[in-house]
Write a structure and sequence with these properties.
Layout: H1 16-24, H2 29-33, E1 39-41, E2 57-71, E3 78-85, E4 90-96, E5 110-120, E6 123-127, E7 130-133, H3 139-145, E8 150-152, H4 161-174, H5 186-192, H6 197-205, H7 210-241, H8 254-261, H9 268-281, E9 288-293, H10 299-312, E10 316-320, H11 324-338, E11 355-359, H12 365-377, E12 380-385, E13 399-405, H13 412-419, E14 427-432, H14 438-444, E15 449-453, E16 463-469, H15 474-489, E17 493-497, H16 523-532, E18 540-543, H17 549-560, E19 566-569, E20 582-587, H18 595-602, E21 612-618, H19 625-635, H20 639-649, H21 652-655, H22 658-661, H23 676-692, H24 700-709, H25 712-720
Parallel strand pairs: 4-6, 9-14, 9-15, 10-12, 10-13, 11-12, 13-14, 16-21, 17-19, 17-20, 18-19, 20-21
Antiparallel strand pairs: 1-8, 2-3, 2-5, 3-4, 5-6, 5-7
Length: 721
């Protein structure tokens, strides 16, 4: 019998174990045991083909409608083109130089077909797919699946679903089930009426009915939610026990002087969130707070006031930004907002003032040396920087607050390295401009208190958004460039955003047989076209990540000053860039961006008194899922609603993916959007259990589940935050 931790190669013969490891990351019996089916097909029930997404590895059940061999023009070889259908939609299967398959891939036959969804001649296709026919000519497979649900597993090009299914059969028959420990306490299982773990695992892989599968998933959702919430509850308990310096600003200091100069009144939301933050700073254990809100809701202002409060107590504050453009933008805007309060110790500086330092990797030696001196001496109460802030040479006199902007851009080690520069744990404020639904925040950021800014400051203008179907209506694109010229004629400015830069490194030939959709539009190409065509005579500049830092800063300064009419850029301008005079944004190949990213980009316009306009250019057909995403963005300015749409359309693993939280996904059946009741209940149970048994000495199976679920990387995430 095999144990859970044994490598798959001991159980599965041949090359399959290596392919499962290389293509799907499945190395042990336990990995395969928890590789659950994505869905279940029923014999005779065809897959809905019109719901397939581009670039996704799929397994579909369909009926062959026609098959023909098409010779290549002007060269040797042929393409076997097979059309399969679900009775409504169609999908093309393309086999290159495999004409012999036409004898078995005959019209009327039904089977499972697996491959990556691409496009050829604007028609969706699977190139050289793997397949299993399921009619009377393939009696063995038909009998194997007769009368029950057919599991369809997350698969890869090298390992189709039915081969994974055979590996699972071998596992279920050869596993020592006594080695499978149940992480849920018996009391919880009884009170929640949850089935035993072995029964759940067997039923999710081999359900006889849909009721079997639903019951199994209900049990396994609890496993995932409970183990994760126990980990987060332990983290919260540890944080609350750590000592920190309470930061309570006195009256008449830097914060009061700053507030007195503000030319506007803080919104009710900003005042409420600031009060929550100041309450945390006044405690003698570290603040761990997430500040999220709508684009343009004034998060930077809230973060700055928190930093000023810490400086008032003699401490220092560091703001970590993901890009040099954003760090420089934050530095410029904070210095402008503070005026002579940002010139502490300098001739003409205010008495209560402090220095505001900038530290990036590309700074010259003299400027860098001065910034380092200002930090270690304490002359600089505030520093804004990129990853350069976490280098060993950077030392603080008294680091009291770390503000992380766009938290999802930073790894665990980077955040931890900055926090380690304080004698005692500093307070931590995480800011994100991507609104997150409550259920996601409760799971991803379960160790953080959450503040939400959902109110825009007075004076912000409305933004109208429209989809521009470039192929279907070429005149719409012509009109888009006319609108840009009209805005510039009124004295305003425009952004044009492209998915890639467009230098030679990007221009790689596609392998034969792949889809023929053109490469993404590029900054350098579009800028050249516009300068010599639709926007001739306007001052057009480019901005992208491969430019020298000084050149990027120069372009942004001139654009901010109004010396540039149109900025053609990559997503380097996605967050933090604030140019109130920019009123129009044209996003090329908008379907290649995510929903939340489009919402962020759109937030760069409408920041002044004039209305904003965002034009989403796409050549995807109206019925496609990509166009439906764009329609959703155009239909609402509610970032929380859009984030829900975005997450519903992404695979669940991405929700807790490393890009967002620093922890790889451990969720396979739990949906953080749909299973709010389970997550909330698991959180309550976890808090009670950890309070009674913080070291889990009475719950060894649960402790083991934590160890196996949280590999070293995930453990670092929970330890370091």
């Amino acid at each position: 019998m095999s144990t859970v931790d044994e490598p798959l190669r001991k159980l599965i013969a041949g090359n399959s174990a290596k392919v499962l490891a290389d293509s799907l990351g499945l190395h042990t019996n336990g990995d395969l045991l928890h590789h659950y089916p994505r869905r279940y097909a029923e014999r005779g029930e065809l897959t809905s083909l019109d719901e397939l997404e581009l670039d996704e590895h799929v397994t579909v059940m369909a009926r062959i409608e026609k098959a023909e061999v098409i010779p290549f023009k002007g060269r040797k070889g042929n393409r076997l083109q097979v059309v399969v259908t679900d009775g409504r939609g169609r999908l093309t299967l393309a086999f290159f130089n495999q004409a012999h398959r036409v004898h078995e891939l005959r019209p009327g036959r039904q089977g499972l077909f697996a491959g990556k969804v691409g496009v050829f001649n604007r028609v969706r296709q699977l190139a050289n797919p793997d397949y299993q026919l399921m009619d009377e000519d393939s009696a063995g497979l038909a009998e194997e699946f007769a009368g029950r649900l057919i599991p369809v597993y997350p698969a890869s090009a090298q390992m189709p679903s039915w081969k994974i299914s055979k590996a699972v059969d071998a596992l279920l028959g050869g596993l020592d089930w006594a080695d499978v420990q149940d992480p849920l306490p018996e009391r919880l299982r009884t009170e929640r009426q949850l089935m035993p773990l072995r029964e759940a695992l067997e039923q999710i892989h081999r359900p006889r009915t849909h009721a079997d599968e639903i019951a199994a998933r209900s049990r396994l959702k609890w496993d995932e939610a409970f183990v994760l919430q126990v980990a987060l509850a332990r983290r919260r308990a540890t944080d609350s026990a750590q000592p920190a310096v309470a930061r309570v600003p006195g009256a008449g200091g830097l914060l009061d002087a700053f507030d007195a100069r503000l030319p506007f009144t803080l919104t009710e939301g900003q005042q409420k969130v600031s009060a929550e933050i100041f309450g945390d700073l006044a405690r003698e254990h570290p603040m761990h707070r997430l500040l999220q809100g709508e684009v343009g809701s004034g998060k930077t202002m809230v973060g700055l006031r928190a930093m000023l409060a810490v400086v008032d107590t003699g401490g220092q504050a560091a703001m970590l930004a993901p890009t040099e453009v954003l760090a420089q933008q934050h530095h410029r805007s904070i210095v402008e907002m503070m005026g002579d309060l940002a010139e502490g110790g300098m001739l003409g500086g205010a008495e209560q003032g402090t220095k505001v330092a900038l530290l990036t990797g590309s700074m010259g030696v003299p400027a860098r040396r001065q910034a380092l001196l200002d930090l270690i001496s304490g002359d600089a109460g505030i520093v804004i920087g990129t990853h350069a802030l976490i280098e060993d040479k950077v030392q603080f006199r008294d680091l009291g607050l770390v503000v992380v902007d766009e938290q999802h851009r930073f790894g665990v080690e980077q955040r931890d390295a900055l926090r380690a520069k304080a004698d005692r744990p500093p307070h931590l404020l995480v800011m994100t401009a991507t609104p997150i639904p409550r259920t996601v925040a409760m799971t991803v950021f379960g160790d953080l208190e959450t503040s939400v800014l959902d109110q825009l400051p007075a004076g912000r203008s409305p933004i109208s958004t429209h989809v521009v179907p470039a192929l279907e209506r070429p005149n719409f694109l012509t009109r888009a460039w006319e609108r840009v010229r009209e805005e510039v004629a009124k004295g305003h400015q425009a952004y044009v955003v492209c998915p890639r830069i467009g230098d030679e490194e990007d221009k790689k030939a596609k392998p034969s047989g792949e889809d023929d959709r053109r490469p993404p539009l590029a900054v350098l190409d579009i800028a050249a076209e516009l300068t010599g065509g639709a926007l001739a005579g306007l001052r057009v500049e480019v901005l992208h990540g491969r430019m020298a830092p000084d050149a990027k800063d120069d372009v942004m300064r001139r654009f901010t000053a109004g010396a540039v009419d149109v900025l053609v850029a990559t997503t380097v301008i996605e967050v933090g860039v604030n140019v109130p005079n920019a009123t129009v944004m044209v996003i090329m190949d908008a379907d290649r961006f995510g929903v939340s990213q489009l919402h962020q980009l759109r937030g760069r316009v409408g920041r002044g008194s004039a209305p904003g306009l965002c034009l989403l250019v796409s050549d995807m057909p109206a019925a496609s899922a990509a166009r439906q995403r764009l329609d959703a963005v155009a239909a609402t300015l509610d970032g929380f609603e859009l984030s829900r749409i975005d997450l519903e359309q992404r695979r669940e693993g991405d929700v807790l993916g490393q890009a967002q939280s620093g922890v790889r996904s451990s969720l396979r059946v739990l949906s953080v959007l749909q299973d709010e009741e389970v997550i909330a209940a698991a959180r309550e149970e976890a808090v009670l259990l950890v309070a009674a048994d913080p070291e889990l000495t009475e719950h060894q199976a649960l402790a083991g589940a934590l160890r196996s679920l949280l590999d070293e990387e995930r453990a670092d995430y929970l330890e370091k935050g």
